Amino acid sequence: HYDGFNKMLQLMIDNKTLVEKEYGKIAIHPEGQNHINYLNSLIWPFIDTYWVTFTFIFSLIPSKFIRETEMYEKIQWFAESLYEDQIISFYESCSQEVIKNAVGIYHSDGIIVKQKLETIADGVKDPTIYTFGDKYNDEEKMQKFLDKLSHYRKPTLVKTSNMNNIR
Fold this sequence. Notes:
Blueprint: H1 2-14, E1 18-20, E2 26-28, H2 33-58, E3 65-67, H3 68-84, H4 96-108, E4 112-116, E5 128-132, H5 139-151, H6 163-166
Helix pairs in contact: 2-3, 2-4, 2-5
């Protein structure tokens, strides 16, 4: 991965997107601002989707689980609400397909786990739920992860890095 990163960095320097300054510091080349803006426009909607999905998962703390059949639609509704409130900047961030990818990544990383309910009530046909994995079943750890994600988001006028602001 390190070699690939260095190759990409050198390509961006060769294309005058970035410039290497003294002491090995890297900066945006004056001619490269449009390239950076273009790349940001491609990446930010995905970052917002992952942020929205994690924020939704984080908001489950009082109940600690959600049924799998409800999860994607509720996250999409949540994303659309945040878009309307201008907390996220891209409607593309509300895509259910990207939300499913984010859930899949969080599941494979152990942030959330899939479980079957042992008892079924109220005629529930799908007893599969998502809940927190042991690694992230701690509000402080989740806040730290949310802070890391927030660092990469496009700046907005509304401060949203603290979970209390979202709740």
